[in-house]
Write a sequence for this structure.
């Protein structure tokens, strides 16, 4: 049973400076019309699942948050300040089964040289159907060569930015094609990532995921899955993977913080094998994380 | 003399529905923490220069606003509602010499199915030095092939979205290289656009700009410049242009709504010719627009 969750909103006083926050009414506006987070999508975020009051993979999320900030040349987020706000958001309401906290960190009001940051908490949607029945995906061109993060760092590939309009447009394109989600492919034919998820395959007895050098986000949930896989005797690897690898894989998933592991049951309209038992094992393992 | 301008902020009641707005305190927050405009950069904008109380090229800006909305599958913005708010913002303070209104239109709070829109007005920075002394630019890889808008419309090239983090990152890269601004180049070697401007060249006696089919924004200021150029006897054309064309052009500019025409005096550290007289003529022509 999912208990009631009231949204929580905590505005950090100094997101790059020191701990401290103000609790705001989540129904009231929080961002200035002149905040670069909204006028330019100039900021970063993290989404962290909370199960039984435990923010899952919090250290990995906070580490990625700092990496994203560095890629955008934002002031280093104050880890203790954000950590305090995350736990305060969790403490601010009754025990929940599945909810998520979101960290938003922007460059702040243009010209003010003072970043903006808040933490919110909302109940998660029910992803039972996607986790058990699986999802249909389409492969969409990401438009970039797989070397883009090395050759053109100003394109911010590998940073989790607020500039996600194309991730949303790609999801609409998937819906238009009768699918649930997307796997982006590089112009040189390598599997990249979903618009808000990581690709994981069971391939030749190993659990594999695309190399993060391809200009994709390092996946926090994928990292947890690799730990679970190794405990269960599977070798794990970061590799250069192609649509052919996806087609011949024994099982494939899109994995992310809130939905966890969603088995891929079709690619571009072609049904593909799912492994219900392994999926259940992975999702149970994710739900049982103690940190 | 630039007169004092107090910021103005008008929140549209139904940005896709009917005219009507509320005037807000620009010092107070306007956007929800859960607005997709901020959490996903999922929205669009326009910036319109106001000279002597006249919003320059308003029709062209509103037409592009609607085109951007269509590319993002946002509800069609209600043209009369936005027009009313623009003029109300202009009326809300004393006469100004140079200021700008900004239109922001987002998909609204996630799940609410109700877009958010506001119009703000701020004084313009003083761009006299850039307009007269010129700017140094660097050429930066945009990472996309010039056919991207046709092959992969979900990448939203040609839409003026709130997801502008890479435009800001590219500008920082230019500063790091000792330059003022950027011209993006496609992977197949064609000049595209600046992060917030259009490229215009004087080439072989004509005034030319890159074709908008290359996945770039149609420029409202560039369009006005083409009108001015034709009145002055110059043929105008939309073409496929290369860095070599930029190097051999008699004159080159980055043009945009607030800065107007900034002559390019150096490319990747190499000085290039400017045409002070023609620049002055273009900027006078832009400032004299009556609509």
């Amino acid at each position: 049973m999912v208990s009631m969750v009231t949204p929580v909103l905590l505005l950090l006083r100094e997101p790059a400076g020191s701990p401290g926050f103000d609790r705001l009414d989540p129904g009231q506006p929080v961002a200035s019309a002149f905040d670069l987070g909204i006028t330019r999508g100039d900021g970063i975020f993290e989404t962290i699942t909370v199960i039984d009051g435990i923010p899952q993979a919090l250290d990995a999320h906070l580490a990625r948050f700092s990496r994203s900030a560095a890629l955008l040349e934002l002031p280093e987020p104050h880890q203790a300040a954000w950590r305090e706000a995350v736990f305060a958001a969790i403490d601010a309401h009754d025990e929940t089964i599945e909810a998520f906290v979101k960290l938003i960190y922007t460059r702040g009001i243009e010209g003010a040289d003072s970043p903006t940051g808040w933490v919110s908490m909302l109940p998660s949607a029910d992803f039972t159907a996607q986790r058990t029945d699986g999802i249909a995906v389409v492969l969409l061109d990401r438009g970039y060569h797989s070397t883009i993060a090395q050759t053109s760092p100003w394109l911010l590939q590998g940073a989790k930015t607020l500039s996600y309009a194309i991730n949303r447009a790609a999801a609409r394109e998937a819906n238009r094609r009768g699918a649930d989600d997307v796997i982006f492919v590089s112009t040189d034919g390598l599997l990249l990532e979903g618009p808000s998820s990581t690709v994981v395959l069971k391939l030749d007895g190993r659990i594999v995921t695309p190399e993060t050098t391809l200009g994709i986000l390092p996946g926090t949930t994928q990292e947890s899955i690799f730990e679970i896989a190794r405990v269960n005797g599977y070798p794990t690897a970061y590799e250069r993977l192609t649509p052919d690898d996806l087609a011949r894989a024994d099982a494939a998933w899109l994995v992310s913080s809130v939905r966890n592991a969603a088995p891929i049951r079709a690619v571009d309209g072609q049904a593909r094998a799912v492994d219900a038992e392994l999926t259940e094992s992975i999702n149970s393992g994710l739900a049982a994380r103690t940190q």
